Amino acid sequence: MDEKGFARFCKISKRLRRHLDDKGIADNIAVVKEFESFLRKNRKRRSTGTATEADVEAYSEHLIKSGKNTWDTYISLLRYARFLDARKVELSILNRLDGVNVLPDLSNTLKKRVGARRQAEILGGLEFPSLGSSNTSWPVITKQFMERLEGNLTQKRCRSLLLTGPHAGPPEDYKHERELFLKSNDLDDFLRKRHRRSIKTLETHMKEKTLFYTQEIDRDVLEFVKGNQEIMGGVRAGDVIYETKIPYMTREYLAERDTKMKRYYGCHCPWARESILSGVNIPSDFCYCSAGYHKRPWDVVFGQPVWVDVEQSILEGDPICRFSIRIPKEYSKPPAKMKRRRGANR
After folding, report:
1. How confident is the model over 63-79, as pLDDT tens digits?
2. In terms of domains, do 107 and 93 share one?
3. Do 311 and 324 contact (CB within 8 A), yes or no?
4. What is the pLDDT at residue 18?
5. Which of 11, 259, 286, 314 can pair with 267 through a Cys bridge, CB separation 3.0 to 4.6 Å?
6. How many other CB atoms are there within 10 angstroms of residue 225's CB atom?
7. pLDDT, average across residues 77-93
8. Which of 66, 97, 128 is the last residue in one of the domains?
9. Helix (H) or strand (E) holding 58
10. What total number of domains does the chain contain?
11. Do the domain assignments include residue 112?
């Protein structure tokens, strides 16, 4: 293990959202050493740099059995994988962490809305898989979760719960969207600028050969996004904005000809994606959870809650996921100079 190189990476790398102090680095090194020891003893003397997805799966099962499957453990391994540019390990860990908070957070939100007793009546007995579990263990639980919600809540209340977007991040993450909006001539101008800025982000990932979330960006992916302003931008039509979700694995999506596999590569939700292959029929309204991810930025942009509907859904058999965002009345007029409301930029 390159301890000195990794320590420097943890202190200065732009690929990390936060840098670590000496204690944090020492803790990370200890975690990586345990992983490397496991690989040497149990996985044909492999190392992190040569480990496969199956190796990560085996180690994750070991962590679960030993009670060491904590966020800190997985994030430490993720940091080291990025330091080594061990792409297979990085992707495997990301896929095991992706969205694991969603159902527990939705369960907690339900509790706040209907009370502990009612929440227990609706969801009692459901046990969520452990952190680090394979995504194949989630579709059945997700199906049961949705059936419980839909059997006890009205459609509107169920969708409203899912739209809370537990995986969307805090509003503070989207302040830059609000600032760009206020500097734009009108909503259509903002949407064009938003799309251009997204393209620049993808260009940077392509140039630096880094992952955009969990996917690699090449020229075909870039041209695909450039050709559709709805992807990572938005297009206004009357009083709604339409957004199309970028496929989860766009390179594979564009190359695939089989309908089922194309939907698989297009779907971002790890459990909905696995359900496509397993045949577990998760109710399609679960895609309002994905709509909640798209809702959060617009709540911040407009300075008020907005409603988002699912127009097309991979769970419904569509090849893409597409959403419509209702524009607040004061912003729904065709191109016109936007007037800043008092305190709008505070």
Report:
1. 999 999 999 999 999 99
2. no
3. yes
4. 78
5. 314
6. 23
7. 91
8. 97
9. helix 53-66
10. 3
11. yes
Q: Are 80 and 120 contained in the same domain?
A: no
207 in the same domain as 240: yes
pLDDT at position 344, please? 41
Q: What is 198-250 written as a DSSP string?
A: HHHHHHHHHHHT--BTTB---HHHHHHHHT-TTBTT-EEETTEEEEEPPPTTH
Helices vs strands, H then E, count in the chain: 16, 4
Helix (H) or strand (E) holding 309: strand 308-312
Q: Which of 71, 97, 123 is the last residue of a domain?
A: 97
Under 8 Å between Cβ of 184 and 331:
no
Residues 187 and 93 in one domain: no
> Hey, which residues does 40 pair with through a beta bridge?
none
Taking the C-alpha atoms of residue 318 and residue 321, their distance in angstroms, rounded to an integer, is 7
Average pLDDT, the chain: 90
Are 195 and 325 in the same domain?
Answer: yes
pLDDT in tens, 19-59: 888 899 999 999 999 999 999 998 888 889 899 999 999 99
pLDDT attached to residue 188: 93
| H helix or E strand, kind and range, residue 206 | helix 187-208
Same domain, yes or no: 180 and 324: yes
Are the C-beta atoms of residues 35 and 109 closer than 8 Å to each other?
no
How far is Cα 199 from Cα 267, in angstroms, rounded to an integer? 20
pTM confidence score? 0.84
Q: How far apart are CA 52 and CA 14, in angstroms?
A: 26
Looking at residue 334, its pLDDT comes to: 52
Q: How far apart are CA 176 and CA 157, in angstroms?
A: 31
- Other Cβ atoms less than 10 A from the Cβ of 270: the count is 24
Nearest partner of 191 among 149, 150, 244, judged by Cα? 244
Task: Verify that 258 and 299 share a domain, yes or no.
Answer: yes
Report the Cα–Cα distance between both ends of the chain, in Å, rounded.
48
Q: Domain span at residue 238?
A: 171-331
Residue 325 resides in a domain? yes
Tell me whether residue 84 is in a domain: yes
User: Would you give the DSSP letter of residue 145?
Assistant: H
141 and 271 fall within a common domain: no
The pLDDT confidence band at residue 336, using thresholds 50, 70 and 90, is: very low
In a domain, 339, yes or no: no
Say how far residue 210 (Cα) sits from the centre of its chain.
17
